[in-house]
Amino acid sequence: MVNNISGADVPQEQKAGWASFIKSLAQMTGDLSSMTAPPFILSPTSLTEFPAYWCEHPDLFASISEGATDKERMERVLKWFIGTLSAQYTTRNEKMGSEKKPLNPVLGELFYGVWPDINGRGETRLIVEQVSHHPPIEHSYIENQKAGVKLQGHSGQKTSFTGTAINVKQSGHAILTVQPKNGQKEEKYLITLPKLRIEGIIWGSPYIELTDTNAIQSSTGYTAQIDYKGKGYFTGKTHSFKAAITAGNKTVQTYEGQWTGKSFIGGSKSHLFLDTTGPKEEVSVKNVEQQTEWESRKLWVNVAKGIRTGNYDEAGKDKTRIENEQRQRRKDEAAGNTTWSHLHFDHVDSDPDYQMLSALLHDKLTPAHEDAYVFKENTRDIVGRQA
């Protein structure tokens, strides 16, 4: 297939570069995250901003704690989670015509945002920090104090090329903490991350399909398993999924449909579960002029401007400057025998919440232990790193 590169959707002036990129993919072994992509598939957005996609339906996030029973709250968690997928994995297609490679964040990069209190749902805050560069890992904290719901987690990616598609294995996990409004005991939910397959590479029009399975495990004992398939499976449509909530060995309820569209309780002819085609609420962020130097949009402002305007030479120059500064900072740390200090999160070798919940999950593919990053509560109101 690589020898038949058509690049049908690649701009004419970049076809040679695209062909070279595809051939490089085919020859690459190991992780692809460090590869430099052709300019026309670069996104003007840093990967540090991506955790905002977890909450572009803030009403669903806030309403989890209003469930009257632990079963109803589990269903609300599943609904909120399915509602995050379209924003996370298809937004670039909607806005830019195809999937785009995000900018690789620098170590220590920060992103802050908020969804305001509307109709009494409470304000939802987001804090993201790039906690590792090799491998790239960002950690995020999302909280609605009024609703009694908070989420924190980290993710990294390992990528490989199979000849026609890029496969992405996501590492990490998220822990959702819910204080039910009816006064019942606090609940925790482990969320594992799905695998991705980026199709359409040889045509120059990449798009994402989710593959395999991920799970949500509640401290109450309920488990949700979500199975993903692309076109030709289940409904014969792209972005299809089936999910089941179980208690022990008993299936409580099933759901199916498209995570980019409508899904239904029990089957396609049953009651509507979720419709993700409606408007999303993008996170509110301070203007670039008001941001500190380590915040994503301030850091990458010239690179993003160059990508958006097609001035890839200028974008490339500033991108190189930022990357060279990072390399020098690491050299200085090595020479001074110092290490980088995280602003908002502490690294822990083993996450007790993860251990407890993964033991309940009984998933052979889920490691018994996984490291994590824990939010520093005393940094809640700190914005930006001091120079």
From TrEMBL:
GO terms for cellular component: cytosol; membrane. SUPFAM superfamilies: Oxysterol-binding protein-like. One of its GO terms (molecular function) is oxysterol binding. Signal peptide: none annotated. Transmembrane segments: none annotated. Residues 312-335 are annotated as: Disordered. It holds the Pfam family Oxysterol_BP. Belongs to the OSBP family. This is Oxysterol binding protein. It comes from Kwoniella heveanensis BCC8398.
